[in-house]
Amino acid sequence: MVTTNPAKTLDWSGFVGRVRAGMRADLLVIKGSTLDPYKALIQATDEDVLLVTVDGDALYGRWDWLERLKPRDWEVVGCPGLVRGLDVTFADVPLGNETWIEIVSKIEQAMKFDPWIGSSEYPDLHAIPLTPLFASCDPEFFETLNTSANAALPFNIWEEYYAGIEADTDGDGILDAADSDDDNDGLGDVQEGQLGTNRLSPDTDRDHAIDSQDFYPLDPTKWQREEDLVPYVVAGGVLATIVAGGYYYRRRRS
Description:
alpha+beta
């Protein structure tokens, strides 16, 4: 009813509001009990979001799910204790090939307010740091809410919803404390320590290649050995490559 009634109200019931063949498939998958899905929804935090699809295209969620749905066409986002996959690229719109890390870099640069800082015209202007993507990784956010005279919350929102949640970085249901592979990238935590890769990120160098499949996991400029690659371009702006006898493709990022 949460989605069907609004769809009817807007006269969109032929496109959205139900999980049915032919619909737009704007879907949200969260953790929780199937016995009380409504309660699971309203109590969900950012750590409970496992998958988001828009018009059938998986754009956010568990990175290993995105890797299955769209190999190497996503990037890592997160913070200690929480890592997910995100795809913000779309070739059919202006600047659609910009990655998340490129977008964040531009916003961070803009929030430094150069060259106005220190000018006589704006003497009180100062740089503002970009807040974390996830609320659970932003203690300042909760401190602001809990001490706000305007909000005047009768409870501590961090203690109510987030305190006591043990880290499950990859969202696989195994807490990091008991998980030998915290980021689920195929390399155990001990092995990642030996290699120098990040045990809390499946793509340490952010080159869109999972560490366990990356011959150069600390070098963002390459991931496969040249002898394993025979690239060629096919119609439709799709890059196709023979990789070690297999077939791999993705949208061009040019």
